[in-house]
Amino acid sequence: MSAATEELPLRHALTVPAVGAAVRMARETAEMVFTEWGVNPGHPTVNPALLVLSELVTNSVRHAAEVSPMVTVIFAGGRDCLAFGVHDRHPYRPSLSASLIGPDAGGLGTVMELTLGLGGTAVVHGDPDGQGKSIWITLPL
């Protein structure tokens, strides 16, 4: 977690098995959490945030499930910001900047385009033991 997200007062965590249904569970949980935090479901950041979250959880399920049977999503929020991190225990750390290059950028390309288009940030944090990572997205409201 970055220093900026550590300062966000609102928190919620979800840990689910790394199976296809995890995407739906993460998305439904995000909708519930954002609503509880007073974020209007019609806010222009919400739908792109849900798509970004879905892409990140899908990537964990597709690429990390064999070595990481669980995926954790941590939501953080404040008055003018939403953040979420998707964590798995696969050691591979994708290059988010490289995901914007080329016609086959794929899901991470979509994540980066949406995040940057909303004025947000995306970072990859490795676990201290080198055996996992979290991809954190921070979006202004």
TrEMBL record:
Entry keyword ATP-binding: yes
Keywords attached to this entry: ATP-binding, Nucleotide-binding
InterPro entries from the UniProt entry: Anti-sigma-factor_SerPK, HATPase_C_sf
CDD domains attached to this UniProt entry: HATPase_RsbW-like
MF GO annotations: ATP binding
This protein's name: ATP-binding protein
Organism: Streptomyces antnestii
